[in-house]
Amino acid sequence: MILQSVKMAWEAITSNKMRSFLTMLGIIIGVVALVVLVSLVNGATGAVTSEISTLGNDMVTVSISDDKGSPIRLEDLDTIAALDAVGEAAPSDSMNATAKFGYSDATVSLYGTTPAYYNIQGLTLQYGRFLKSADVQNASYVVVLAYDTAEELFGSADVVGESLTIGGRSFLVVGVLEKDTSIFSSMIGGYSAYAPFTVESRMADSPYVTSISISPAGNTDNTESQVNSFMLARFHQDEDAYRLMNMSSISDALSTITGTLSLLLGGIAAISLLVGGIGIMNIMLVSVTERTKEIGIRKAIGAGKKSIMMQFLIEALMVSLMGCLLGLTLSWIILAIASSIAKTISFSMSLNVVLLAVGFSSAIGLIFGLYPANKAANKHPIEALRYEG
Amino acid sequence: MSAQNRPIISMTGITKVYSVGGEEVRALDNANLLIREGEFVSIIGPSGSGKSTLMNIIGCLDVADSGEYILDGQSIEQYSEEELARIRNKKIGFIFQNFNLLSRMSALANVELPLIYQRLHLSERKEKAQRALDRVGLTDRSSHKPTELSGGQQQRVAIARALATDPAILLADEPTGNLDSKTGDDIMELFRELHRAGDTIVLITHNEEIAAQAQRRIRIMDGHVSEVGV
Fold first, then answer.
1. Backbone angles phi, psi at A141, to 5 degrees
2. Which residue does chain B place closest to A305, by CA atoms?
3. Contacts of B62 in chain A (CB under 8 A)
4. Rounded to two decimals, what is the model's pTM?
5. Which of A5, A68, A272, A372 is the most exposed place for a label (fewest CB within 10 A)?
6. Cα–Cα distance between A256 and A88 in angstroms, integer?
7. Which fold has domain B2-228?
């Protein structure tokens, strides 16, 4: 019976293609709005979140503005690293200096740090090695360059073993990092280089650590509170002496914002689907009136209320599901175009969004088909047969 | 011979009252009617005589206010619409003046329609529908749409649709009313043929000439039903 109703519905829909299409249009637009908006927000969120995690999602940074007479030395970092909730700790002080190689030069941010920095920041090497403990102890003039820095100065990245001068001193290149393709790095721009802390502090004439990167052992929030109490004890309970930043709290805040955003946009899209549903009801009501005679004939030859009800309900459902299908196809095309324009961000339809669209469209088809179908089913056969439209 | 056959339609004291503009109209007043299996009966009456009401009650499109109506051994009482639809589907084969075919569908699909509502399987449905079309002489027209057929052919499709379910009665309402006299004669010939094959036919008309071709005539006037010439 359902198969027959589907067949009848299909005949009715195809017998007036233009009208059926226009009826579907409301659903098509609604579905496109829902799927595209939600997918765009999700895609953007995904991109931003992954950017943040490349910055070091699980990382706490401390920058000290006032040392209160008890500055942090390199040895103190071992004490911090020994806290239960702390994995590793490394200085991340930096200075600007001019780097030169032959006739080319560039202003670089020279970071003075220790080997632990590599893991904390989640760096990856392209060539050579990162800094070693011996480099720090011996205050060796060795440097690890960012990929772009190497390219800018040397014209190529494979420059391990070459020498260059930074801030007037000669450095040996021991390693080159992998190219950083994240949006943040292109936003921040600039060229960076990493030297032993002992070298950088001497050059900058600031022997103390004023900026620390800390990786957590376990929960980042625990790390944050433990480091915070350490700093408070160190700086005589003065909260203003330092600034502590938890990277994961940034991504938490971001996900709250994007969650709200996708809810809001999804809500707007849902309203347009609702309007599409009203369009279906409108046309179904017209269709029921137009087909009064048909309903009369069907009833005379033995169609019961339920059969008529089913026929019109399935027709409404089919219109909305076909609209949904067309909407999903269109959304897919739009997202593919958006992805190719945005390049770095890929917008894809998640299964959840597709299921949401299908579920919502079916519900709309059923709800708004119910009234017209009921009207059709309740027509009196004698009057319906007598109707001349 | 028909007098011995079992009754298909048995009405006693059927009354149907409509109120039109606050005034009561007795469309059927204490009507009695007996039609046996295999009979070819015509019901004649001018418009407004209660003819349509009688047809609607015979065809189970409507139920009487009072009286007893037994159709093919089944008492038709205050059934629900759903149950009446099922009875119509099984026992009545309607044939209308204006054919009432669904123009979107082929002849075969139109004939299949009542079988769909019987929930028959596809193969059985096709077979029965094709057999019904064969009986009305439209074997080669099964894939044509009603608009591609002449009036006479359309009425034949409608008759095939009525025959498809092997109903207890064929109930024809002015079946020749929309046809020219030649085509009308052909349709009447078809009815006589069906009658000879054993189908029970009730033909409702205002045309004396058409009515005279039936085996038995019943006149209806102002809601009263009476036998003619017996």
1. -85, 70
2. B82
3. 382
4. 0.73
5. A68
6. 29
7. Rossmann fold (3.40.50)
